[in-house]
């Protein structure tokens, strides 16, 4: 059996209708997992689900829409997954919000609250809903897709960076709580990745040049390169990793 085999596992991935989340559900399905595709809008989710099922076989993927800002919708996501598959082996908290670009003194209260709630509190809610059955089974992997923004300051992404730094600590705290029950929780911290979510940071040629000029690999990343780290953390290959943050940024933060 491959160290990276996910056969028989059930994975729930939020924000998985596009970008990094889509790459993660597609690659987890490729490695044998049954996957739940989830984001706010059902139609884009169903498109991903249909593509996975067409490629890997009927019932490999299912769509369960959920808005991460709603605790009730997250509970519905968990309940429907348990009804469909009977368990959750892997949870990937990938969905996030960034409604504000600019200095901290220009962010509105609503924008600040949305950033902190969607990027920290919703992860806390969803993990709290999923972890008990993992603990009872003494097996599970939880992954938070954070950001290298949590490792440095920013003149335009301050609240987002604060929220992503908090995710690192959320993983560390819960790793201590869940570790005795053989449930692992880790973060992935992507650098600049070619997604719609980060389009404002890479579509402008000047911004792209500034970013890649100080990146040892001299390019931005692709969603599949984050999916690879998620496969590691979800599989037997990662069973002695918990409470950690894996930085996937082409070396940008070392320069």
Structure commentary:
Strand 2 (34-38), helix 2 (42-56) and strand 3 form a beta-alpha-beta unit. The chain has a seven-stranded parallel sheet, with helices on both faces. It has one domain (10-248): Rossmann fold (3-Layer(aba) Sandwich). 45% of the residues are buried. The protein has helices spanning 19-30, 42-56, 71-85, 109-137, 158-178, 199-202, 205-213, 223-234, and strands spanning 10-14, 34-38, 61-63, 90-93, 140-145, 183-190, 245-248. It is α/β, with parallel strands linked by helices.
CATH-defined architecture: 3-Layer(aba) Sandwich
Inertia-based shape? globular
Secondary-structure element pattern, one letter each:
EHEHEHEHEHEHHHE
Q: Would you report the number of β strands?
A: 7
Average predicted confidence as pLDDT: 96
Give the strand order of the largest sheet, numbering strands 1, 2, ... along the chain.
3-2-1-4-5-6-7
List the total number of helices. 8
The secondary structure category is alpha/beta
CATH fold annotation? Rossmann fold
Share of residues in strands: 5-15%
Rg on CA atoms, Å: 17 Å
How many domains, in number, for the residues? Answer: 1
CATH class: Alpha Beta
């Amino acid at each position: 059996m491959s160290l990276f085999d996910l056969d028989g596992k059930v994975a729930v991935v939020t924000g998985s209708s596009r970008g990094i989340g889509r790459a993660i559900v597609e690659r987890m399905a490729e490695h044998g997992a049954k996957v739940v595709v989830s984001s706010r809008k059902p139609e884009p989710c169903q498109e991903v689900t249909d593509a996975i099922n067409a490629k890997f076989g009927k019932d490999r993927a299912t769509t369960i829409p959920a808005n991460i800002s709603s605790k009730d919708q997250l509970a519905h996501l968990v309940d429907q997954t348990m009804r469909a598959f009977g368990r959750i082996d892997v949870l990937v908290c990938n969905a996030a919000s960034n409604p504000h670009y600019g200095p901290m003194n220009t962010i509105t209260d609503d924008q600040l609250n949305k950033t902190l709630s969607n990027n920290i509190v919703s992860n806390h809610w969803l993990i709290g809903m999923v972890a008990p059955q993992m603990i009872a089974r003494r097996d599970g992997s939880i992954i938070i897709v954070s950001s290298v923004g949590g490792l440095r300051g920013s003149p335009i992404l301050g609240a987002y960076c604060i929220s992503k730094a908090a995710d690192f600590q959320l993983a560390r705290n819960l790793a201590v709580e869940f570790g005795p029950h053989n449930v692992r929780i880790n973060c992935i911290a992507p650098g600049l990745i070619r997604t719609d979510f980060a389009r404002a940071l890479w579509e402008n040629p000047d911004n792209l040049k500034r970013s890649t000029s100080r990146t040892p690999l001299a390019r931005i990343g692709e969603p599949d390169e984050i999916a690879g780290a998620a496969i590691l953390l979800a599989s037997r290959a990662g069973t002695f990793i918990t409470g950690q943050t894996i930085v996937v940024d082409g070396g940008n933060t070392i320069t």
